[in-house]
Amino acid sequence: MQILARGNWSGAVGFILAAMGSAVGLGNIWRYPYITGQYGGAAFILLYIACVFAVGIPLLLAESLIGRKTQRNPVGAFRVLRPGSEWVVAGRLSVVSSFVILSYYAVVAGWVLHYVYLSLIKSFAGKSPQEIATLFTGMIASPWLQIFWLMVFMLLTILIISRGVSRGIEIGNKIMMPLLFALLVVLLLYAIQTDGAATGLEFLLRPQWQKLSPTAVLEALGQALFSLSLGMGIMITYGSYLSHQSNLVGCAFFVAIGDTLVAILAGFVVFPLVFSFGLEPSAGPGLIFQTLPIAFAQLPAGYWVSLAFFVLLGFAALTSSISLLEVVCAYFVDEQRWSRKKASWTLGIVIFLLGIPSAVGDDFLEFMDGLATNYLLPIGALLIALFTGWALTHDERREEFSAGESSAFRFASWSFLIRFVSPVALVLIFLHQLRLF
């Protein structure tokens, strides 16, 4: 099959920022702090970093290698590498995963946009904790409000994707990622001056080994997998726009370190605010939309802090959503010969329509999240690990890995991890998600 002329990153920096933008999402700022609070602060952080290096980076390298080697979308990549085989199912699963995830992820991202608006109009100032909690329940109880913000968020995503790889995705990430880090640093400088800073930092930096358990290990593995956008074909797609002269190992390390840094810094922002007002550090997802606004309402500069925080969340959500839509669009552009504008607008509208049931009912959102989290992502990541480690020959792996990377030790280490460690870890994550382990 003839390979079409495709977009490309302007260089390795473009890929790193885009991949980092995909990895840095709501999970870093929303989920990571509360599971850190639940599983022992610094002890969990150290465990999480170990999982990133042992499982996350090897899988990120595997996906990027497949994409760069074939210069194709996930489905086309497996067709090129193993024509006529059943491995193409792994590519199709990646496209389906991105489609499903974006449909409900965009609903939650719409909540973030609504909270940016609430921050702008000073909705938290002077409100009691009960009144602030009512803001969230009122939003959830209003389907039309959720559908409106879902539509706004999907329009932003479509507009970026429709401009292409270098003029849309890359430029968008080059603007949003530095702003995201800048906002995070500003919030961090503010948070460490609050009354609860000492307690919050002690909570994060003092290892509580007694809170670690087999469940904590599996949660850390799962967070590393999902935070780095693995198992959904994003890194295959983004890797397909990368030149063969780029160093995959260096790119993967930069992406993983940047993603982990954002998650840890988010904890340094969240916990000082939580402890300043005696709030619960392991409050769950409600920490972002119900617990933290209570703190914002009582802070001297609460208006600016809340606005910066939710704008930060908005950037994180948008950089992830454009990567999810790009996976789906790349398939239709490569395999179905659609134009980029047709693919981005048509598929964006379809995903918006699929997201409406998640906006209307919590049960459907939870079902879609469970479908993706429990089945699609672990199975997709496992298939990619098995394909790279066992279906690709030693020479195929070495040839692509060695382009821009000369270390034989790094290749041997990666080969061992992707063949033996990653598959075992992914099977354990899958069983854990099903509550069977």
Produce a short descriptive summary:
Helix content is 79%, strand content 0%. It has 437 residues and is an all-alpha fold. α6 runs antiparallel to α13 and α16 runs antiparallel to α18.
Can you walk through the features of this model?
The chain is built from 18 helices and no strands. By secondary structure, the protein is mostly helical. Helix 14 (302-335) packs across helix 15.
Keywords:
single chain; 437 residues; mainly alpha; globular
Low-confidence stretches: none
- Strand tally, please? 0
Number of helices: 18
How large is the share of residues in beta strands? Answer: under 5%
Rg, rounded, reads 21 Å
Overall outline: globular
N-to-C span: 43 Å
| Helical residue percent band | over 70%
Following the backbone from N to C, one meets helices and strands in this order, namely: HHHHHHHHHHHHHHHHHH
- Mean pLDDT across all residues, rounded? 90
Helix-strand blueprint:
Elements: H1 12-23, H2 26-38, H3 42-70, H4 74-81, H5 88-120, H6 129-140, H7 143-162, H8 165-191, H9 197-205, H10 214-227, H11 234-239, H12 248-276, H13 286-298, H14 302-335, H15 340-360, H16 362-391, H17 394-401, H18 408-433
